[in-house]
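Q: Given only this backbone (130 positions), what sequence would you predict?
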């Protein structure tokens, strides 16, 4: 599993062919179509996210699309839409956006995230937590 540490700031399109854990900051687009993406406790992602499985422990501002599963843990925050066939949201997690589930959710979510990539992410100050 690859790891982007706490001190790493990455801006641009991030793609890969292995599992990835993000503990730093990523801005742009993240695509791991056949692997798992984990946004760690210190991770701050401002991007359109597409992966096989996505686990959010930190903060994502942008749409999240998974072909298999999305998990938002208790400390996780998603400011954006989620599309996945399976979804787990733990008590205490925050999701500000729409949720689309079912067999075709990941495919239609990927299409809508391409259209929404021009839309700016919600400002941090406008976010309400718990």
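A: Predicted residues:
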């Amino acid at each position: 599993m690859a790891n982007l540490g706490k001190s790493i700031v990455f801006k641009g399109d991030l793609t890969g062919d292995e599992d990835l854990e993000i503990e730093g900051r990523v801005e742009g687009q993240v695509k791991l179509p056949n692997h798992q993406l984990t946004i760690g406790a210190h991770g701050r992602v401002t991007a359109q996210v597409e992966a096989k499985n996505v686990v959010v422990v930190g903060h994502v501002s942008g749409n999240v699309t998974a072909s298999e599963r999305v998990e938002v843990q208790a400390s996780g925050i998603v400011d954006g839409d989620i599309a996945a066939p399976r979804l787990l949201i733990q008590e205490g997690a925050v999701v500000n956006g729409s949720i689309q589930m079912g067999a075709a959710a990941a495919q239609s979510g990927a299409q809508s995230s391409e259209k929404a990539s021009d839309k700016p992410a919600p400002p941090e100050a406008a976010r309400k937590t718990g």
